[in-house]
User: What shape does this take?
Amino acid sequence: MAEWVKAATTEECSGEGCVHAATPEGEAVVVVKVDGEYFALEDRCSHQDFPLSDGSIENGQIECVFHGARFDVRTGKAKSLPAIKPVKTYPVEVRGDEIWVQVGG
Ligand code: FES
Assistant: This one.
């Protein structure tokens, strides 16, 4: 069942390209900030399951630090090899200084 959970605060994720991992309800989520907007993705690379929260953000894409796969933060689509499958994305809402993510959908 889908539910909203608090994943981070805007203070924790204040820098452009900030990456913050949270594990609400057992789902690993990475929250990123791009162009002043927050996005949430599954914190598990579709290549070999390493956490994307160890990676970096560039041009609206999150890059996996392990083998360099990149994913569009808005859609979760794989943009470069070795990943070919997308990662899940989650709806995000900013409530005051808290970043909420809808998981379990
Ligand atoms: S685990 Fe991410 S590119 Fe290999």
